[in-house]
Amino acid sequence: MRTHSKHVLMCAGPRCTEGGRQAEAMFLKLGELIDGRPGLKVKRTRSHCFAVCKNGPILVVYPDGVWYRCAGEPVLERIVEEHLQGGNEVSEHIIHRLGEGDA
Ligand code: FES
């Protein structure tokens, strides 16, 4: 396993998107975006469900404890570019924060 400083959990379950197909495609896209940035130390893991199934896929960044609704590739690209790479949360897509609750 590569050294990583952030861990992204992404839902590829059946209810975030129709049958989970778009969610699975976005999980694969997340891998491409991470691999395209060799300096980025991020591990990704597919999740089945976070029990907030709507307008997903849901994406959680740890250790930051930030939960996103990642409705579409433009949002995914912003999360990778701005949060994972730049260290700035994409606040308008955050739905929940560890220790604080729903946004
Ligand atoms: S199917 Fe994605 S949160 Fe439930």
Write the layout of secondary structure elements.
Elements: E1 6-11, H1 21-35, E2 42-47, E3 58-62, E4 66-69, H2 73-85, E5 94-97, E6 101-102
Parallel strand pairs: 1-2
Antiparallel strand pairs: 1-3, 3-4, 4-5, 5-6
The structure holds FE2/S2 (inorganic) cluster.
FE2/S2 (inorganic) cluster (FES) is lined by residues 11, 13-16, 49-53, 56-58.
Description:
- With 103 residues, the chain is of the alpha+beta class.
- It has a single domain (6-102), classed as Glutaredoxin.
- Helices cover 27% and strands 26% of the residues.
- The chain has two helices and six strands, in the order E-H-E-E-E-H-E-E.
- The protein has helices at residues 21-35, 73-85, and strands spanning 6-11, 42-47, 58-62, 66-69, 94-97, 101-102.
- It has a six-stranded mixed beta sheet with strand order 2-1-3-4-5-6, with helices on one face.
- Helix 1 (21-35) packs parallel to helix 2.
- The longest helix is centred in the N-terminal third of the chain and has 15 residues, at 21-35.
- The radius of gyration is 12 Å and the shape is globular.
- Bound molecules: FE2/S2 (inorganic) cluster (FES).
Quick rundown:
The chain has 103 residues and is of the alpha+beta class. It is 27% helix and 26% strand. The protein has a single domain, classed as Glutaredoxin (3-Layer(aba) Sandwich), CATH 3.40.30.10.
In terms of quaternary structure, what is this?
single chain
Task: Count the DSSP helices.
Answer: 2
Number of domains: 1
Show unreliable segments: none
What about the largest sheet?
6 strands, mixed
Q: What is the radius of gyration computed over CA atoms, rounded to a whole number of angstroms?
A: 12 Å
| Global structural class | alpha+beta
CATH topology: Glutaredoxin
Kindly report how far apart the N and C termini lie.
Answer: 33 Å
Helix content: 25-40%
CATH architecture: 3-Layer(aba) Sandwich
Strand order of the largest sheet: 2-1-3-4-5-6
Topology as a string of helices (H) and strands (E): EHEEEHEE
Which CATH class? Alpha Beta
CATH superfamily: Glutaredoxin
Q: Could you tell me the mean pLDDT?
A: 94
The best one-word shape is globular
Query: What is the strand content?
Result: 25-35%
Number of strands: 6
Bound molecules: FE2/S2 (inorganic) cluster
